[in-house]
């Protein structure tokens, strides 16, 4: 979470700004820019999703930085690839529209991220765990009303026993529309804060959310 001093400095930057946000964090270009420019924010988001203590995370590195002074093709900025402490890879995807190919596309992104951990001829020991974090306001996987989740978690399991086959590949889906399903743990980790920030539509929303983040 943002500490009181840093949060106060942050709020001063737009104290007199009001009205609708031209573009928010649900825009993948904006998200890529914000998290590339602010490693603290990037670490905060990943730690909130993964329920990690930020004090135990030393470094986050964006693996696919962009030169914003040049024209950027839409296909380049679909995701944010992150290396956490040189021990785990993350692919952060902003998905705000329904896509009939999302299941296949998400698996392709996850597998590509996992494969980034090893080069041709290298030892398999170099492979690192990979997690695809998808942030959305849609039900990407159809489900019943009583099956809604704020943070979905998917892994590779034995179909009969549900025992885990491997912890190396994971998919987590943060559904902004299901914030009412958030748990107390989600609130303590900062995940509710991030969900509200991604959902913000006005500068007034940003100020209110940021003030509420001080602990």
The poorly predicted ranges are: none
Instruction: Tell me the radius of gyration.
Output: 18 Å
Q: Terminal Cα separation, in Å?
A: 8 Å
Find the structural class using helix and strand composition.
Answer: alpha/beta
Whole-number mean pLDDT: 86
Please give the count of helices: 7
Tell me what the structure shows.
With 215 residues, this protein is an alpha/beta fold. It has one domain. The chain is built from seven helices and six strands, in the order H-H-H-E-E-E-H-E-E-E-H-H-H. It has a six-stranded mixed β-sheet with strand order 1-2-3-4-6-5, with helices on both faces. Helix 2 (28-37) crosses helix 3. The longest helix has 14 residues, at 102-115. The protein is globular and about 55 Å long. The mean pLDDT is 86.
Write a brief caption for the model.
By secondary structure, the chain is of the alpha/beta class.
Protein topology:
Layout: H1 4-12, H2 28-37, H3 39-50, E1 60-62, E2 79-84, E3 88-95, H4 102-115, E4 130-136, E5 151-157, E6 164-175, H5 184-189, H6 191-199, H7 203-212
Parallel strand pairs: 3-4, 4-6
Antiparallel strand pairs: 1-2, 2-3, 5-6
Helix pairs in contact: 2-3
């Amino acid at each position: 979470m943002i500490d009181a001093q840093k949060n106060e400095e942050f709020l001063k930057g737009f104290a007199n700004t009001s009205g609708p946000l031209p573009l928010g964090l649900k825009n993948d270009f904006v998200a890529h820019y914000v998290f590339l420019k602010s490693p603290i924010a990037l670490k905060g988001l990943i730690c909130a999703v993964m329920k990690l203590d930020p004090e135990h995370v030393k470094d986050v590195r964006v693996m696919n930085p962009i030169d914003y002074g040049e024209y950027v093709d839409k296909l380049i900025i679909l995701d944010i690839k992150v290396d956490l402490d040189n021990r785990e890879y993350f692919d952060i995807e902003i998905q705000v529209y329904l896509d009939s190919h999302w299941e296949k596309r998400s698996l392709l992104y996850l597998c590509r991220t996992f494969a980034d951990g090893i080069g041709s001829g290298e030892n398999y020991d170099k492979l690192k765990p990979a997690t695809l974090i998808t942030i959305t306001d849609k039900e990407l996987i159809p489900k019943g009303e009583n099956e809604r989740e704020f943070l979905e978690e998917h892994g590779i399991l034995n179909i009969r026993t549900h025992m885990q086959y491997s912890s190396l590949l994971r998919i987590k889906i943060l559904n902004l529309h299901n914030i009412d399903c958030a748990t107390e743990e989600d609130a303590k980790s900062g995940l509710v804060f991030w969900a509200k920030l991604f959902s913000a539509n006005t500068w007034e929303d940003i100020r209110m959310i940021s003030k509420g983040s001080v602990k």
